[in-house]
Design a protein that fits this description.
213 residues; mainly alpha; Methane Monooxygenase Hydroxylase, Chain G, domain 1; 2 domains; 8 helices
């Protein structure tokens, strides 16, 4: 009995397929070629595998062989670019996550107070970036429902800022406004805080007590 190879032709026979005539190919190869021609993306699917059947490849027309080799090379290059892009995106995400973390995260009251004092003593007037960082931290305290800690910190900052110039007073009011955003987001109302300064800002206490603090 005549044995057949894995692609459906007698062992030892050779396909005489050329660019103009593919009728000598096996049924399996014909089906493979038809599917590949109908759906070009099938090539990419095959080329993703490192285990390319070289017997089948060599029986294809030379023009098609070259096309497959080009596609394969392009796929390798594309995969390399995708990997580099993925790594770059992960690095970017890690940096953004790190930047979003507050420098005050994890500090107890004693350490936080020391940092705030050092900040106040190191500048003649507050820098915008520092005010934004502190404002964001206080806002997060409100969102995290750490109200007692927030009140204690705001009272400390206000007492210190009273002795400083109006640049610091305005910075404090900016911090309070951002903090109230967190309160509204979490509780639907604002926190009762001191906003009074002699040289600028509201002369009265504002805000409404929305929890038993």
């Amino acid at each position: 009995m005549e044995t057949k190879s894995r692609i459906g032709r007698p062992t030892g026979s050779r396909s005489k397929m050329n660019n103009k005539n593919k009728s000598n190919s096996s049924p399996m190869l014909d089906k493979y070629l038809q599917n590949m021609m109908k759906t070009p993306t099938k090539i990419n699917t095959i080329l993703r595998s490192q285990n390319i059947d070289m017997d089948i490849l060599h029986e294809l027309p030379e023009e098609l062989q070259n096309e497959i080799r080009i596609e394969y090379k392009q796929q390798i290059q594309l995969n390399g670019k995708n990997k580099k892009s993925l790594i770059k995106n992960k690095i970017t995400e890690a940096k953004e996550t790190q930047q979003k973390r507050s420098i005050f995260e994890g500090l107890n009251w004693k350490d936080l107070k020391a940092v705030l004092k050092a900040w106040m003593n190191s500048e003649a007037k507050p820098k915008k970036v520092d005010v934004e960082i502190i404002s964001g931290y206080f806002r997060q305290l409100a969102i995290n429902r750490k109200i007692e800690f927030l009140k204690m910190t705001l009272n400390f900052v206000h007492r210190r800022f009273i002795k400083m110039n109006c640049e610091w007073h305005r910075a404090y009011l900016s911090i309070v406004n951002t903090t109230q955003q967190g309160m509204v987001a979490q509780y639907g109302g604002t926190l009762l805080v001191e906003r009074k300064f002699d040289c600028c800002g509201p002369k009265t206490i504002s805000g409404d007590l929305i929890t038993k603090l």
